[in-house]
Structures are given as C-alpha cells and as structure tokens.
Amino acid sequence: MGTGKKILLFGLPESGKTTILKTMREGKPPAKNERFPATIDYERTVLISDESEITFFDLGGATAFLDRFTGELSEFIFTGVKVLVFVLDSLKIPEISRAKYYFDLCLKNIEKYSPETSVVIFQHKTDLIPKKLREEVYHTCRDYILTGIKKPVLYYETSIFTCSIVIAMSAVLQQALGYIPNNWRFTSLEEKSRD
After folding, report:
1. Is 188 domain-assigned?
2. Backbone phi and psi for residue 186, each to the nearest 5 degrees, phi listed first
3. Would you state the pLDDT for residue 131?
4. CATH number at residue 88
5. DSSP codes, 18-73
6. Is residue 190 assigned to a domain?
7. Which of 9, 59, 66, 127, by CA, is between 20 and 30 Å from 84?
8. What pLDDT shows up at residue 132?
C-alpha cells in the first residue's frame, strides 16, 4: 500500500493533530473530556478512496521528536510531501514563538526536499477562545506565524466540534489530490517508527 503521497501533520504537543485525524476517521468528534495519549515519534494513517490513496503522518509534538523530524530524519519526513498541515494551538499564545521556530524549520525542509508542497495552517481550538477575543487571537497568531514567509499559505481557523475541520481538511485533500474524494475511508497502519 502507498503511492508515495504524504500529508504531514506537524505542531507542538497537544495542538490537536491526533484528535483531528481521529475526528476525520470516525466522522464525529470525540467526547469533550476524552484524552488521547501523546503520539510517540509518528503514526501513519492512510486515506483510501476509489481513485487513490494518501498517507497522513501524524508527527509527535515533543521537542525531541520535532528536533529529529527537522534534523536527522528530515529527508525521510519531508520527501514526497504533498501538503504540510501545521497545527497551531489557539490557546497557547505564549508558545507561539516556539511554534514559529518549528514552522520555519518545516518550510526550510520542504523547500529542500519537496518544494512543490502546499502549506496549510490550522489555527486550532478556536471554539475555546472567548468570542470577544477571537478576532484578536486570530490576527495575533496569523500575523506572527506568517511573518517573513514568502511561500503561499492557506490559513484556517478550526475546531473538531464545528464543520470548520471538515472544510479545512477538504481543502487539504483538494491540494493533495486535486479533487475531494467522494467515497473514502481511513486505515491505520500498525507500523510506527522504531528508532
């Protein structure tokens, strides 16, 4: 199985990468109090449709993993990527400079190994921001993370509890495949990185 097409989900710990994939795979959000274990290294999930398949790489957000992915494993991680989805946690504004650091490293590696890659940012968990602060948080996050970026970037505010995540993920699939598949399903691969 595999066409060599990859979608990377990259972001700091607890930004929501695994939950986004689980929501898309199951077609419904998890219970509000449901917790997921941290992703260790990376996990692969394949989206299979009648026409094609593409592999999602859910990359663990711990610093040790982020450093490996953008350093010694960068050729493996960033080669053959169709779309980079950088997940930015709207609730962790104090960590935005750290997120920007890794976003910039991602773009550097994309340029080196897969320069045609589309880049998408999910500013995630927007439903948890008080309504009166949403616009300010949106502009603060967007303006900061995109400072100095010349590559085109699609930017979405997302939540697993609204249709925003389906709209944003549809845009990702459109970028990756050139169309949005009608009939599709996710398959988890048991293989995880073993280093």
Report:
1. no
2. -100, 145
3. 93
4. 3.40.50.300
5. HHHHHHHHHTSPPPTT---PPPPSEEEEEEEESS-EEEEEEE--SHHHHHHHHTTT
6. no
7. 127
8. 95
Backbone angles phi, psi at 27, to 5 degrees: 75, 15
Task: Choose among 137, 124, 134, 142: nearest CA to 85.
Answer: 124
CA pair distance 140, 1, nearest whole angstrom? 41
Cβ(86)–Cβ(103) below 8 Å: yes
Tell me the residue range of the domain where 135 lies: 6-30+38-182
Q: How far is CA 183 from the centre of its chain?
A: 22
Q: How far is the C-alpha of 22 from the C-alpha of 26, rounded, in Å? A: 6
Rounded to the nearest 10 degrees, how much is the dihedral formed by the CA atoms of 154, 157, 162, 163? -20
Mean residue pLDDT of the chain comes to: 87
pTM: predicted TM-score of the whole model, two decimal places: 0.89
CB atoms closer than 10 angstroms to residue 86: 25
Spell out, as residue ranges, where the chain has pLDDT lower than 70.
1-4, 36-38, 50, 183-195
Amino acid identity of residue 67, one-letter, is: D
Size of the chain, expressed as the number of residues it contains: 195
Whether residue 9 contacts residue 24, with contact meaning beta carbons closer than 8 Å, is answered with: no
